[in-house]
Amino acid sequence: MKKYFIAAVAGILAVSLAACSADDTKSDRTEKNSKKHTYTSERESESKSDYLGIELTFHDETDTVTEHETDAPETEKHTESVEVPTKPEETSDSGYKYAYAGFEPAYADMNVSDWRLILVNRDYILPDGYKPELANAVESGFDDMYLDERVAPYYNEMYKAAYEDGIHLVPVSGYRSVERQTRNFERKINYYIDQGYSKVEATQEAATIILPPGTSEHNAGLAMDICSLEQNFEDTKEFEWLCENAADYGFILRYPEDKQDITKIIYEPWHWRYVGVEAAKEMKASGECLEEYLGLA
User: Fold this and answer.
1) Is residue 71 a part of any domain in this protein?
2) For 218-273, how does the pLDDT look when each residue is reduced to its tens digit (9 = 90+)?
3) Which of 2, 81, 193, 264 has the fewest CB atoms within 10 Å distance of its CB?
4) 61 assigned to some structural domain
5) Which of 44, 268, 278, 291 is catalytic?
6) Residue 116 forms part of a structural domain
7) Residue 268 falls in the annotated catalytic set
8) Is the model's pTM score more than 0.85?
9) Which residues, other chains included, contact 76 with Cβ-Cβ below 8 Å and sequence gap of 6+?
10) Range of the domain at 162
């Protein structure tokens, strides 16, 4: 009897030890799985964050449909085209891509004696592949805003002078690539087509707000949209300061309200073009726009 009792106790102890061992193993496995799950979640979180960062970057660079849109900054240095073409590129059987709407611009004279007076408008297009050498428009604080490197020092000087007067001439849109200009122009055409305009009418209307690609001063890095993109900018102290002082730094109001029949562009109080101090002061005194000053109006 005593022998059977001892055997029974030994059996119970063996079962208990086995159960404890199983619980420990299960606990270890659960802890390992928990750690593995936590690690996977953190990795997934990092991956999603990276993905959203890319998506946000793309969203920040969505194209818009106004002449004053800024271009996404480019990091490589830009160089001018070696050859200057003498006639518009033939993009279709009828010539220039937008010839159907009456646009057949000649190539701008890039060899003009004074580069500051290069005329870029709906009648004069930049040479194929032209890209100016770029520099930051302001020394610090606006790392994504560029102008032609020959223009940037004058804008920076004007910016600092205005700042000393309590005026903040925030650079809104400087250099813009022809590729960006093309996307914006095409989208504006489609906007008017959706409003019921014919393709010809839509293209002509779009060109009063967004110049056709290659014909914008932004593509040449010669102009800056300042502070605002609204016509009520003319009611601000910044606009008043520009009207009084910009010519001293070589800048002119490029698209005045009373010259729309000549420029063929809506009134843009925010768009200021560099032409050099002498020419700017002369145009300010005479009240002429650039086309008139050059004898082309």
Assistant:
1) no
2) 999 999 999 999 999 999 999 999 999 999 999 999 999 999 999 999 999 999 99
3) 2
4) no
5) 268
6) yes
7) yes
8) no
9) none
10) 99-293
